[in-house]
Amino acid sequence: MVKKMLIGELCKQADVTKDCIRHYESLGLIHSTPRLVGSRTYREYDEETLKRLELIKYGKSLLFTLREIKPLLDLFMSNQLPKAQRRQRLKQKLSEVEDKIHDAQRVQQKLIEKIKALE
Questions:
Q1: Distance between CA atoms of 86 and 90, rounded to whole angstroms?
Q2: Strand ordering across the sheet containing 4-5
Q3: pLDDT digits over 88-99, tens only?
């Protein structure tokens, strides 16, 4: 039997906010199942949603954007993303990060020069 949880429990387990859950759901990164209890509708989430959140957080920690994560998420979850393609995506991201580091170092040098000029 699949364990279902409400948004509060999911937030605790995934260490994210309710707004984050709602945002990811609005983007189609995660999904919930509505459950009617009396006159109220609750959204239920399963263990797969928790795994998806963990993958999203991991991707973000590697500086992938949500736009970059979305098309890869289902492939990662089903283990259908070939190793070569995973390697290629990671190399591409590494190159982007290296470019950002280089740009930041140029800005840092300019700031150092400006500070010295003001001394």
A1: 6
A2: 4-5, 40-46, 33-37
A3: 999 999 999 999
Domain boundaries, the chain: 1-81, 82-119
Specify the long-range contacts of residues 37-46, CB closer than 8 Å, at least 24 apart.
Answer: 42/6, 43/6, 43/7, 44/4, 44/5, 44/6, 45/4, 45/5, 45/6, 45/7, 45/10, 45/21, 46/2, 46/3, 46/4, 46/5
Burial of 59 (0-12, 13-18, 19+ CB in 10 A): buried
CATH no., domain 1-81? 1.10.1660.10
Q: What string of DSSP letters covers 42-103?
A: EEEEEHHHHHHHHHHHHHHHTT--HHHHHHHHHHHHTT-S-HHHHHHHHHHHHHHHHHHHHH
Which of helix, strand or coil describes residue 23?
helix
Prediction pTM value:
0.80
* Interval 23-53: pLDDT, tens: 999 999 999 999 988 899 999 999 999 999 9
